[in-house]
Amino acid sequence: MYDLHCHILPNIDDGAGDLSVALEMARIAVDDGITHLACTPHIYPGLFDNSPEHIAAALASFRKELEARDMSLELTYGADIQVVPELVEGLRAGVFPTLNQSRYFLFEPPHHVPLVNFAQFVFDALQAGFTPVITHPERLGWIKEHYREFVSAVQAGAWIQLTAGSLTGRFGKVAKYWGERMLGDGIVHVLATDGHDCCNRPPLLAEGEGIAQRVVGKEEAMRLVLDRPRSAWENADPATVSGPPGLGQPGKGGGKKSRGFFRRLFR
To answer: What is the pLDDT of residue 248?
Structure first.
């Protein structure tokens, strides 16, 4: 399994507080069946002023610690990028790192207030050749009134990433409801751990995949934790990647049934 979103690097944001915690998180991930993990600390100007150089250096150091302990976990880095006006400019300049230097990047909307010009941010990133991977929308306080904006973002070409723990109830009943709703509506591309520690927010994917299987079936659940995240890791052209079933596009995992479902849902 591939985890594209984990705050495992020690002493760099609100994730692992020290090396011992980071190493234990790595052990948990390996035991859970995760083979590839993207270290994605926050970039939030004024709060977490991380840079690609800083993140890359922390990754190199942590990779050596894993190798010294013979821990088999393939690492890369990106960032959980808070949406700011200079988003596309920062992506183009390399100030905001993408996932494994690909076209895919973690697009983190604000948690408590709606993102003004949400559709424009998505459009601008897509037009610039990047694919936004919208992180944990099910946990946002404003999703109920703005749900259709996320559907539109997916239809435009953005990806949706759910936190696996949301499906288990780790983030409460509301996040669980919206996570299952988005899965059922067929607009989710990826599950990730968004791991921050060993206890409250551990890097566990298998539990979320198990719940996803009950909602979307085994094959689609595997696409959520293996096929699509691997495609992002390898910088595959999004047009060649099988999309979630709700898109209703020929060759993209949908069809007449999915299109009819969307018509019933939003008419």
So the answer is: 54
Listing DSSP states for 226-250 in one string gives IIHHHHHHTT--GGGSPPPGGG--T
Retrieve residue 23's tokens: 């190493």
The CATH code belonging to domain 2-240 is 3.20.20.140
The residues near 165 (Cβ < 8 Å, ≥ 6 apart) are: 171, 193, 194, 201, 204, 207, 208
> Can you give the pLDDT at residue 179?
97
| Cα–Cα distance for residue pair 132/154, rounded to 1 Å | 10
Give pTM, 2 decimals: 0.91
CA quadruple 8, 11, 16, 19: dihedral positive or negative? positive
Pair 261, 246: CB distance under 8 Å: yes
Q: What is the largest distance, in Å, between two alpha-carbon atoms of the chain?
A: 58
24's tokens? 């234990």
Assign 255 a pLDDT band (cuts: 50, 70, 90): very low
